[in-house]
Amino acid sequence: MTVGLTHIIVVSTVLFFIGMYGLFTRRNMITMLMSIELMLNSVNINFVAFNKYLYPDKMDGIFFSIFIIAIAAAEAAVAIAIIINLYRTHKSIDVDDVTDLKQ
Fold it and tell me: Which of 1, 21, 44, 82 has a CA 20 to 30 Å removed from the CA of 73?
């Protein structure tokens, strides 16, 4: 049995919606950040899959994936710095506890 484009798209869609569910239901900032990363990785899977099956001689999908990985790393570094700063000032990383930022 070979893995076709449909199988990869189904896996990518499931990963994206798991990430979306985690983003909308969790209140912990670290979990929300991991959910965003999961959504970005599902997009990367789509780029690589469509590049492999539709345009095998081109490398555009792989370059887009590398660019998204670099942007996700920078986003994670900035988000973790913000989360650490909020934890130092409010002693919590729960979204409901940190809503009052004007102190």
Answer: 21
- For 10-71, give the secondary structure using H, E and C: HHHHHHHHHHHHHHHHCCEHHHHHHHHHHHHHHHHHHHHHHHHHHCCCCCHHHHHHHHHHHH
Q: What is d(CA 83, CA 44) in angstroms, rounded to the nearest whole number?
A: 25
Q: Rg (Cα) of the chain, in Å, rounded?
A: 17
Q: Is residue 31 part of a domain?
A: yes
pTM score, two decimals? 0.79
Q: What is the pLDDT of residues 68-101, one digit of tens each?
A: 899 989 988 998 998 888 888 877 777 776 565 5
Q: Give me the amino acid identity at 72.
A: A
Per-residue b/e over 70-91, b at no fewer than 16 CB within 10 Å? Answer: eebeeeeeebeeebeebeeeee
Number of domains making up the chain: 1
Give the Cα separation of 23 and 34 in Å (integer).
8
